[in-house]
Automatic annotation (TrEMBL):
One of its GO terms (biological process) is fatty acid metabolic process. Acts as an acyl-protein thioesterase. Hydrolyzes fatty acids from S-acylated cysteine residues in proteins such as trimeric G alpha proteins or HRAS. Acts as a palmitoyl thioesterase that catalyzes depalmitoylation of proteins, such as ADRB2, KCNMA1 and SQSTM1. Acts as a negative regulator of autophagy by mediating palmitoylation of SQSTM1, decreasing affinity between SQSTM1 and ATG8 proteins and recruitment of ubiquitinated cargo proteins to autophagosomes. Acts as a lysophospholipase and hydrolyzes lysophosphatidylcholine (lyso-PC). It comes from the Eukaryota. It catalyses: S-hexadecanoyl-L-cysteinyl-[protein] + H2O = L-cysteinyl-[protein] + hexadecanoate + H(+); 1-hexadecanoyl-sn-glycero-3-phosphocholine + H2O = sn-glycerol 3-phosphocholine + hexadecanoate + H(+); a 1-(9Z-octadecenoyl)-2-acyl-sn-glycero-3-phosphocholine + H2O = a 2-acyl-sn-glycero-3-phosphocholine + (9Z)-octadecenoate + H(+). Residues 11-211 form the Phospholipase/carboxylesterase/thioesterase domain. The lineage of its organism: Eukaryota, Metazoa, Chordata, Craniata, Vertebrata. GO terms for molecular function: carboxylic ester hydrolase activity; palmitoyl-(protein) hydrolase activity. This is Acyl-protein thioesterase 1. InterPro entries: AB_hydrolase_fold (IPR029058), LYPA1-2/EST-like (IPR050565), PLipase/COase/thioEstase (IPR003140). It comes from Chordeiles acutipennis. Homodimer. Its main location: membrane. Belongs to the AB hydrolase superfamily. AB hydrolase 2 family. GO terms for cellular component: endoplasmic reticulum; nuclear membrane; plasma membrane.
């Protein structure tokens, strides 16, 4: 571990069975670590894909009475008009972009990298994909929302990912990030990127969790 970054341990990695020609960077949810998702992804992996599950730094979270826990950025409230941690979200996105750059240095082109995440991690993966100048293969956004949505221009974005494929999934009984957040997010995404490339799937009876499908 490099001496200057003691805040978060190195990512959990599921190496490719053969030479890695593609990568998935998957960001966990609030209070979690990358380990659980790396185990889940190991069960469905493709032989040429490297799976990278970073761990968020530990920080106090306003929503949870300032208790310190793994978090990509501060969460102040869970309603659509809650104040957002703009500085923290932008800093976290820069850290994800650095991870993508590292994989590009390792020989995997950015357009062979999928960004994904669950809940807060899914939110960060969406925000990063829409603000980076790195062309990505796609985004998998599970049980999440688009942060700082008011900071995006009305209408289509002009960046390299304006045609990116997005798979968004949400449980219809989610008490933490209500399905409405997912629906609002998918509508916003369809106004910003090619709507034909946005897929929204809901899962009956699923709460704020994941399922085998």
């Amino acid at each position: 571990m490099c001496g200057n970054n003691m805040s978060a341990p190195l990512p959990a990695i599921v190496p490719a069975a053969r030479k890695a020609t593609a990568a998935v960077i998957f960001l966990h949810g609030l209070g979690d670590t990358g380990h659980g998702w790396s185990e889940a992804l190991a069960g469905i992996k493709s032989p040429h894909v490297k799976y990278i599950c970073p761990h968020a730094p530990v920080m106090p979270v306003s929503l949870n009475m300032n208790m310190a826990m793994p978090s990509w950025f501060d969460i102040i409230g869970l309603s659509p008009d809650s104040q957002e941690d703009e500085v923290g979200i932008k800093k976290a996105a820069e850290n994800v972009k650095a991870l993508i750059d590292q994989e590009v240095k390792n020989g995997i082109p950015s357009n062979r990298i999928i960004l994904g995440g669950f809940s807060q991690g899914g939110a960060l993966s969406l925000y990063t994909a829409l603000t980076t100048q790195q062309k990505l293969a796609g985004v998998v956004a599970l049980s999440c929302w688009l942060p700082l949505r008011a900071s995006f221009p009305q209408g289509p974005i002009s960046g390299v990912n304006k045609d990116i494929a997005v798979l968004q999934c949400h449980g219809d009984c989610d008490p933490l990030v209500p399905l409405m957040f997912g629906s609002l997010t998918v509508e916003k995404l369809k106004s910003m990127i090619n709507p034909a490339n946005v897929t929204f799937r809901t899962y009956s009876g699923m709460m704020h969790s994941s399922c085998i499908e």
